[in-house]
TrEMBL record:
One of its GO terms (biological process) is abscisic acid-activated signaling pathway. InterPro entries: Bet_v_I_allergen (IPR024949), Plant_def-hormone_signal (IPR050279), START-like_dom_sf (IPR023393). SUPFAM superfamilies: Bet v1-like (SSF55961). GO terms for molecular function: abscisic acid binding; protein phosphatase inhibitor activity; signaling receptor activity. One of its GO terms (cellular component) is cytoplasm. It is found in: Nucleus. This is Pathogenesis-related protein 1. The lineage of its organism: Eukaryota, Viridiplantae, Streptophyta, Embryophyta, Tracheophyta. It comes from Triticum turgidum subsp. durum. Belongs to the BetVI family.
Length: 97
């Protein structure tokens, strides 16, 4: 069942928003196991080509507990994802251009 609750979270970044979106959202299944191996053990596309309706499977390490989905923890996790992607993009200026 889908949740009717929502929240907003703003993250400042020193790289262009389109690059950060491609790395942190569209290709996160590829980058997550490399940039956050303590959280994501592996990930892969299950269905689709990355557009609307695509499905990706993320396999988390044993350190990730179920029930960790409170808003504060979710915002912290989202920030960590984008900061990892930002650091990768800064270190690799030709990536996702």
């Amino acid at each position: 069942m889908a949740s009717t609750k929502s929240w907003a979270h703003e993250i400042e970044a020193s790289v262009a928003a389109p690059r950060l979106f491609r790395a942190g959202v569209m290709d996160w299944h590829t980058l997550a196991p490399k940039l956050a191996p303590q959280v994501v053990a592996s990930a892969h596309p299950v269905e689709g080509e990355g557009g609307v309706g695509s499905v990706r499977q993320f396999n988390f390490t044993s350190g990730v507990e179920e029930g960790e989905y409170e808003v504060a923890k979710a915002k912290e996790s989202v920030t960590a994802i984008f900061k990892a992607a930002e650091a990768y993009l800064i270190a690799n200026p030709d990536a996702y251009n």
